[in-house]
Amino acid sequence: MNISEKTKSNSAFYYEVCMLKILSDMGYLNEKDLNGIIKIASDDYGASLVLDKNLLCLN
């Protein structure tokens, strides 16, 4: 995977985590489900980001 592909994967992963965080804040996902889906997404995207989901997506 080259740098451009890795950047796209990390960006897509970040976007997905932000969307999941919004759903969690709206009450559609609990903490356990959110963490599980983030883990699956990280594996799927091959993400190399280290994220603190509590500080993401400042809305």
How would you describe the overall organization of this protein?
The structure is a single chain. The chain has 59 residues and is mainly α. It is 64% helix and 0% strand. The protein has 2 helices and no strands. It has helices at 3-25, 31-45. 7% of the residues are buried. The model has no long low-confidence stretch (mean pLDDT 84).
Spell out the key features of this protein.
59 residues, elongated
Summarize, please:
The chain is an all-alpha fold and 59 residues long. It has two helices and no strands.
List the helices and strands and how they pair.
Layout: H1 3-25, H2 31-45
Helix pairs in contact: 1-2
| Tally of helical segments | 2
Category by helix and strand content: mainly alpha
Poorly predicted segments = none
Helix content: 55-70%
Q: Beta-sheet strand percentage? A: under 5%
Order of helices and strands: HH
Give the N-to-C terminal Cα separation: 32 Å
What is the tally of beta strands? 0
Report the average pLDDT across residues.
Answer: 84
* CA gyration radius, whole angstroms: 12 Å
What characterizes the major β-sheet?
none
The gross shape turns out to be: elongated
Oligomeric state of the chains in view: single chain
